[in-house]
Structure formats: C-alpha cells, structure tokens
C-alpha cells in the first residue's frame, strides 16, 4: 500500500483548522513523507534547500550567464538576510502566515510558506517553494501547493498569488498543473535584468473557481 503525505495543522495560529489535520493528499513514491510546521531547528537546512534550489536555475546561455548569476546571487543574499533569517518571526508569529517543511525519514526535503501579499494584501502569497532534487517526482510539491491553498481558503482569502522567473520552467509547469493562471509578466527592476529583458511571471489561483487537482 503506498504511503501518503500527511499534513499537521499549525497549533499556534489564531484560527484552528482541525478538519485539515492529518489530511491525506495523495500517494507518494517514497516512504515516511510527512509535512509539518517549521521549527527553529530546521533553520540551516531550510536555508540550504533554498540556496540549492535557486542555484539550479543558473544553467543558462553562456553569453548571459554572469549577469544572471549576479541577479540570482543578489536575490539569494537578500532573502537569507530578510525573511529566511528569522522564519518564526516572519511566518509563525504573524497573523495569516505559516511556513511548512516536508520530511522524509526525519530529514527535511521540501519547504513552502505563505503570508498576505505585500503588493496585494487581499490575497495570500505562496513563497519559498523548494523540494530537494533527490525527492522530486513524488508529489511533494503538489502537496505543498495544496496546503497553501487550504490554509488560504480557511482564512477567507479569495486567491493565492506567486512570482517566478522566466528560467524556472519546471515551477511554471507545476503551478499551471495545480490550477494557477499567469496574470502578469514584467521585467525585474534591476539594471542587469533590464539589459537582458529578464522577466518575472505572476500567477494566481482563484479559490472560488478552482477545483482541486490530482
């Protein structure tokens, strides 16, 4: 019998959601996969997963490689010094925010977070999605997407938005499969990005219209 991804509801959030506790999200190809709320002892491995995940996208055309590396490295550095420097304060101690990790046999292999979008606070924003390369293709990313959607729906937000870059094609395919639609594209407001016409995409999942996908 295949093992299932389980979600444990956050216990410190202001609004309880017992109906989501230990909800089965689907079969997983690897045993002992569980999704739980972030703990402070996860800090270093979460930062490592984020850095490795972002670094994978640097395999681009040689002629523009150095400029893209510069942009991604700057983004990684900024992220590590901001929300990822204090995940508990940013995501667990704030209203309508949370950060989850996926574990395999006690090892953190995936992450996702959400909080009210800074640019559109009436929507929730999905952030920090990352799954270790060795554990992809097992349904972990889909389960993490569903957790964010359920969390958002329970808190009365009408939609989830997210941002990804033109080079993150696997992420784009995942989000589209999960029911997100591309709503906007824009050039990153950095000089190097403007020179390269390096674009960001905004996606949105409208929860009233969305039907959960396998």
TrEMBL record:
Gene3D superfamilies: 3.40.630.30. Coiled coil: none annotated. Residues 33-208 form the N-acetyltransferase domain. It holds the Pfam family Acetyltransf_1. The keyword Membrane does not apply. The keyword Transferase applies. Keywords: Transferase. This is N-acetyltransferase domain-containing protein.
């Amino acid at each position: 019998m295949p093992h299932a991804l389980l979600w444990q509801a956050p216990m410190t959030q202001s609004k309880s959601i017992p109906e989501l506790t230990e909800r089965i999200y689907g079969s997983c190809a690897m045993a002992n996969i569980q999704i739980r709320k972030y703990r402070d002892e996860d800090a270093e491995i979460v930062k490592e997963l984020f850095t490795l995940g972002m670094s994978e996208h640097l395999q681009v055309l040689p002629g523009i490689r150095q400029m893209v590396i510069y942009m991604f490295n700057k983004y990684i550095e900024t992220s590590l010094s901001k929300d990822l420097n204090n995940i508990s304060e940013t995501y667990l101690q704030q209203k309508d925010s949370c950060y989850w990790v996926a574990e395999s046999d006690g090892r953190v292999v995936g992450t996702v977070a959400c909080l009210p979008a800074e640019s559109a606070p009436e929507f929730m924003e999905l952030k920090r999605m990352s799954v270790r390369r060795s554990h992809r293709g097992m349904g972990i990313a889909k389960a993490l997407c569903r957790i964010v959607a359920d969390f958002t729906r329970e808190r009365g937000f009408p939609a989830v938005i997210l941002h990804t870059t033109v080079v993150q094609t696997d992420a784009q395919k995942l989000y589209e499969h999960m029911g997100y639609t591309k709503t906007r594209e824009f050039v990153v407001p950095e000089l190097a990005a403007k020179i390269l016409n390096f674009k960001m995409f905004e996606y949105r999942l409208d929860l009233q219209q969305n039907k959960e996908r396998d």
